[in-house]
What we know:
Strand order of the largest sheet: 1-3-2
Helix content: 55-70%
Number of helices: 13
Mean pLDDT: 88
Largest sheet: 3 strands, antiparallel
Distance between the termini: 34 Å
Amino acid sequence: MTALPDAGGSGIRGQLRVSPLDALQPIGSVSGYTAASRGRISDYVYDELCEAIRSLRLQPGASLSEPVVATWLGVSRAPVREAFTRLADQRLITVVPQVRSQVAPISMRDVSDAVFVRNSLETGAFRQAIDAHVLDLSELQGVVDLNREAFDQRDAEAFFETDEQLHRLVFSLAGVSRLWGFVRGMKVNLDRLRHLSLGVAVDNPELCTEHQAIVDALANRDEEAGMAVIHTHTHRVLTDSARLQSSFPDFFAP
Length: 254
């Protein structure tokens, strides 16, 4: 369980811990990757680095090097180089050949784009879900209940994960599960901002209220209510961005 301190600027800074890359636990395993599946190894390296960046386990400005990452994940340097190229193309790391590579700052332009895409696709998924002949909301309600428990316990990690599950299930109910993969892939900077704001999130009961309101709007097949709450919910992180940029100026792109 990750219990967060005070939600003010100093409290948020207090919750962040800078760890060397070799101290981080990879989220997956390289087992099953072979020399004959080089592309798959590259995907593995990319996924590990992308998730470490998304969760702020690798913070903006953190140094990266091919040999260190290769040792960390137990792979050769070639797939690491390929993963670096993909991450640089997505503006998640900056690479200066022969000099250094580091985690890129958070781009508020990318955050705004991700909010727009997420809101547009999730409201579309909501509309499609309420048109379904059969709409079983038991799993979704269960996740909302777990999210409320995480909130009550100030368990930031569980709160974030159940939040993700909740919104993924909206897409699943609409029969467009694959679109959630697209949304998640393009919202890395948004998720970095969300992780920075978790100290505020677990102090704000309106988030849980909005999660329940999404379920209720689905149950009532109430399009107007659903559109309103999803718009408010997806844009909420932007309202706190100015304070976060003030507290962590080095974390954001100018």
